[in-house]
Amino acid sequence: MANSIGGSSAAIQLADIKADLTDVRPITAAERCERVNKAARLMREQGIGALVLTASTSLYYFTGLQWYQSERLIGAVLTPEGQIVYVCPAFEESKVRETVGDSAQLRLWEEDESPYQLVSQLLADLRASASCIALDEAAPFFVFDGLRQAMPLSRIINAMVVTAECRMHKSNAELALMQKAKNITLEVQRRTAKILREGISSVEVAAFIDQAHRAFGGSSSTFCIVSFGAPTAMPHGPDGAQYLREGDMVLIDTGCKIQNYHSDITRSYVFGQPTERQRTIWELEKSAQAAAFHAAQVGVACEQVDAAARKVLEAAGMGPGYKTPGLPHRTGHGIGLDIHEWTYLVKGNTRPLAPGMCFSNEPMICIEGEFGVRLEDHFYMTEQGPKWFTGQSHAVDAPFGD
């Protein structure tokens, strides 16, 4: 068996971890101000009178305020002049001000009052046009319904036309945070391979991955898929525990967060000696992933990246399209404060690639009843083309090159 797979234990691997977050730099107030100014400009260009943000990652992106979604409206209203006014329950004022400060403008509502009427009155007080309101795409329906009833003459649109245009183009500071998160997860993946042994359960592996993410200073695992054998052909894995056997394909897909920015890396390899079939399919997956990467050039439509991966697979007899054996889903997704966010590498998406965009690259091969292979690394766009956050896996029997 390859040196990188098996031969160690969770205790040994965890004891050897040294957390180092000295290179982590939080997003600054100045950068958040730039984000607000860009959003305000987009609002003016599109005739949007107000942007209503709810308890979402977009609220955090623009303001730094992180909140949980509940039945109570809490968020912020952004005007085309770049003014921000927070709307929150009166009893939460002190907690909100811990983040936004004493100088921030807050409009408070009591439990027996309508926060939607408060928003309507706020727009009137600010002399903001209520003819077109952009509502956070992550807002629950009850928020949309409340605003619709409070402002029946207003046209409420999806705020993606503002929020997505801002968020899909990452700054250098955002890229650095994502790089840190991905570096941690790749090292966790490497250490995870070392603890594998025959009979180990997928539950035990997932628990180690969570501990390792936290030991490195990341968040708990934001998600964790651990599959062995035939279930590796299921893109999101099976329910329940599995137990590793000699010759199984192993698929582990996981990530963590640094300063709320995500990692998401998948590794596939064989526990034991790969068969010729496993080796061939693994190499095909790597070739499709490489083709997608090289197709991702500035100005190229997102769908062409997906097409490049499928061309490699279909030439080998996979598919066509989403049929299996083959690739049953899109080739990649955007990533940042949400693990899946704008924009997507999928057929029909004609948006041209631009600097700052970040994507997963994961053209998975699913052979139902046999095994699956997913190699997932992420890249970001520069003026010169794509750049890997983490490079491609080395080989099916030496995934980390050792």
UniProtKB/TrEMBL annotation:
One of its GO terms (molecular function) is aminopeptidase activity. This is Aminopeptidase P family protein. Residues 35-168 form the Creatinase N-terminal domain. It comes from the Bacteria. The keyword Oxidoreductase does not apply. InterPro entries: Creatin/AminoP/Spt16_N (IPR029149), Creatinase/aminopeptidase-like (IPR036005), Creatinase_N (IPR000587), Pept_M24 (IPR000994), Peptidase_M24B (IPR050659), Peptidase_M24B_aminopep-P_CS (IPR001131). Pfam families: Creatinase_N, Peptidase_M24. Belongs to the peptidase M24B family. One of its GO terms (biological process) is proteolysis. The keyword Protease applies. Residues 177-383 form the Peptidase M24 domain. Gene3D superfamilies: Creatinase/methionine aminopeptidase superfamily, Creatinase/prolidase N-terminal domain.
